[in-house]
Amino acid sequence: MNNLITGIAHLGLKVSDIDKSSAFYQTLGFSVTEKFAKKGENGEVHVAFLTSPKLTLELYQLPDSIDNNLSQSRNGIEHFALEVNDIDKMLNKIKALGYEINEGPVYEKREYCEVSFFLISGPDGERIEFDMTRYF
Fold first, then answer.
1. Chain centroid to CA 104
2. From the CB of residue 3, how many other CB atoms can be counted at a distance below 10 Å?
3. How far, in Å, are 21, 41, 72, 79, 95 from residue 75 at the CA level?
4. Residues contacting 7, CB < 8 A, separation 6+
């Protein structure tokens, strides 16, 4: 069973405005690879797939007829982390884009690695961590 799972295929994010969220993630370096709408039980579901070299995001916007209250407290994924190769350059890019840094930057030296990270919020309040970890 261990060899059947090879990684994460994509990360799905329910969004309130597909165009706004798509534009936001493009500023972080993602590219739109597919965008479509499909008929659902309660109306059209809008979907966009965005990719970076090592991650695919699936953004989806449910029909207005479905309760889209994204601010509800819920269990599950609290944040996701994007791996970067230069934390300082990424921090400067985020600041230049005018996005607020919610946490960090944090620089930690641990027993087997050094970790640097900071977090921002996306258009729907999703927490996005930028992480650079170096093992030794």
1. 17
2. 5
3. 22, 26, 10, 11, 30
4. none
What's the burial of 72, exposed, middle or buried (CB within 10 Å: 0-12/13-18/19+)?
exposed
Whole-angstrom distance, CA of residue 118 vs CA of residue 75: 22
What's the rounded Cα separation, in Å, for the pair 129 and 26? Answer: 16
pLDDT of 77: 76
In one-letter notation, the amino acid at residue 136 is: F
Q: What gap in Å lies between CA 98 and CA 113, rounded to an integer?
A: 30
Nearest one of 80, 77, 71 to 131, comparing CA atoms = 80
**pLDDT band, very low/low/confident/very high, at 8 (cuts 50, 70, 90):** confident
Residues in the chain: 136
